[in-house]
Amino acid sequence: MQIDPALFEENERTAPLAECRQILATGPFQCETGAVLEQVDIAYETWGELSSTRDNAILVCHALTGDAHAIGWWERLIGPGKPIDTDQFFVIGVNVLGGCQGSTGPSSLASDGRRYNLRFPIITIGDMVEAQARLLDHLGIDRLYAAAGGSMGGMQVLEWTCRFPNRIQKAFITASCAAHSAMQIGFNETARQSIMQDPRWHGGDYEPDQGPVGGLSVARMLGHLSFLSDSAFTAKFGRRLQGKDQFSYGFETEFQVESYLRYQGDKFTKRFDANSLLYVTKAIDYYERASLAAAQAEFLFTSFTSDWLYPTYQSEAMHQMALEAGLQSQHHIIDLPYGHDAFLLDAVHQGRLVQDFLS
Amino acid sequence: MQIDPALFEENERTAPLAECRQILATGPFQCETGAVLEQVDIAYETWGELSSTRDNAILVCHALTGDAHAIGWWERLIGPGKPIDTDQFFVIGVNVLGGCQGSTGPSSLASDGRRYNLRFPIITIGDMVEAQARLLDHLGIDRLYAAAGGSMGGMQVLEWTCRFPNRIQKAFITASCAAHSAMQIGFNETARQSIMQDPRWHGGDYEPDQGPVGGLSVARMLGHLSFLSDSAFTAKFGRRLQGKDQFSYGFETEFQVESYLRYQGDKFTKRFDANSLLYVTKAIDYYERASLAAAQAEFLFTSFTSDWLYPTYQSEAMHQMALEAGLQSQHHIIDLPYGHDAFLLDAVHQGRLVQDFLS
Question: What residues of A are annotated to the active site?
């Protein structure tokens, strides 16, 4: 399999255009833990037209650090004439509860006018889904034609099928799982500790411009290590040096891969709140579904051979759970070298499967 | 393959007993970069008796954070009656140049009475090997019967065969490579940034008890993530909770794997110098051998199917380099689920191969 390095330039889109984003204020919200948020805002975007029978809505759920601008980070799958065709479907992107791109999260202001920070309650994947259901109520959509998501987005879709079996017809879940393994929890915990061990974290009470930028950037570097595969790193960087012909023998950047990771880490600190990363990773780690007995949807699972963060056996386990529940289900293992990022990059194989699944 | 969780308890031995350790003061040392250290100490230990013909010496080279006490961290392979048999061989363990367990490194005192810290020059795998050669001169050993090492220790052994082809007969190299890949460099760079982004690092000028403990502990957590395999993490921890029956829904430890990683990170800060980790990881990343044309040794390579940090293809590449140089060489891929740590844990398969190789 030849790797096209140019593909990797595209794997992280910029933040959503604020003018496209809408905010729904939904009032008080009781979390799965019992904690109550006095007011929850939900940031969302839509593309396409809702049909007169309101039966063509597709909800797109984002991964760890994504946002409501699904047509940006999943541009290969969503758009006019694309597998999730905005000429045909009414597509909804939503920022998760606990996030930091418009929806209520730890960086939001509480009723006392101060940021929640660590006063924010622990939220779950179920809470994210409940918030999305409120948005559908607001939009007048009783039942989704489909929900789609990868990684943490896939967990939300899986939870949709169990929590609201009557409100979702089809579920497309890629590069995801029904419960984090010990190693996946370990990666998340190391990212959390990177933030929490930074003295600038201050127990979560930092000013927005004085946060734990060092720890947050290292957490993101760790993320990028886990998003690609060994072969993808080799294809993209090898041992090539950054802007030099020979070693400088020092702690400045020598290799291109160092420059890439530092750049990704630094860039992330300008768009993401450290406390949000703590809350969202915890929601992922807590998530666990051992059965799809409650579900009624039809499933499409895809996974990627080179994805060592969300290995293919986890998608196979979800597929088997669907079959055991007597549901229609497909699982396709796609042989691509891009690692976990493949779910964002692959329009060809995954795209065809999604198009068929939605038709 | 059944996994014995008890094995994992053993994979990191305590620091060497100071009373066993000897220090050789070797005078000035010119590094590969041209920098000169005014005085280099080499910490070492020996076991067994040097034969009258001085032809039974085996040098054991340690990995990233190991030390001269090889009979501790490699107790499964070294000892009386063990594959590297101290009843038969004179076994030498050496702390690397740049380390912090007796040999000169960045935490050593320079001639001005202050710690080197970042005034220490960049050192290379070649420098580590040159320092070891001085020790052999001191011990009156012209030629090693063998050298043995895993991971970074394997790089030192490989370098021995090229730099001193007349001084080494056999080379046992396990779970190692001839040059770090982009992903391996990426893991090291993330560990380095974890230290350097900690405000307590202070450009490397910290007091020994006021160093970047947070960043150093996260760097070690990252290391442990890469030392085990997905299946090893699952076998050892699964999703089991730490000292509780149900979630606490907070940022304290929930899962056993979180407790394990935090413990390993914290413990590491009490035994290892943060600057040393920077220097030793740089030495690894710089290392590159594209040919064994200069070598004359006989090689034994082992690698492990579940080791994703040092994948088996890297050992195969070294084996092919040895064959291309017309040298005797074997490469055995061992199917064990322990990840990179397998090179420390496997006495059975690896042990038998080593015993045969040395006999």
Answer: 151, 307, 340
For the record, the structure tokens of B119 come out as: 């005034």
Q: State whether residue B30 is helix, strand or coil.
A: strand
pLDDT tens for A110-156 read 999 999 999 999 999 999 999 999 999 999 999 999 999 999 999 99
pLDDT, tens digit (0-9, with 9 covering 90-100), for A219-267 = 999 999 999 999 999 999 999 999 999 999 999 999 999 999 999 999 9
- CATH number for the domain whose boundaries are B5-181+289-358: 3.40.50.1820
- The mean-pLDDT minimum among A1-15, A103-117, A192-206, A344-358 falls in A1-15
Bridge partner residues of B47 (DSSP): B91
Q: Which one of A120, A183, A195, A236 makes the best mutation probe of the B interface by having the most chain B beta carbons within 10 Å?
A: A183
Do the beta carbons of residue B157 and residue B62 sit within 8 Å? no
The CATH number that domain A5-358 falls under is 3.40.50.1820
B151 is catalytic: yes
Residue B115 is given by DSSP the state B
Residue-wise pLDDT for A265-280, tens only, equals: 999 999 999 999 999 9
Residue among A180, A233, A265 whose CB faces B182 most closely = A233
- Asked if B41 and B104 touch (Cβ cutoff 8 Å), the reply is yes
> Would you call B340 a catalytic residue per the annotation?
yes
Provide CB contacts within 8 A for B173, sequence distance 6+. Answer: B148, B149, B150, B154, B157, B158, B299, B300, B301, B302, B315, B318
First-to-final CA distance of chain B? 29
Active site residue B202: no
Task: Give the ipTM of the model, two decimals please.
Answer: 0.95
Please, which residues have CB within 8 angstroms of residue B299's CB and are 6 or more apart in sequence? B161, B170, B171, B172, B173, B318, B319, B322, B327, B328, B329, B330
**Which residues have CB under 8 Å from B146's CB, separation 6+?**
B58, B59, B89, B168, B169, B170, B171, B172, B357, B358
- Chain pair A-B, CB pairs under 8 angstroms: 172
Distance (Å, whole) CA A106 – CA B287: 44
Q: Find the CB nearest A225 among B186, B217, B258.
A: B186
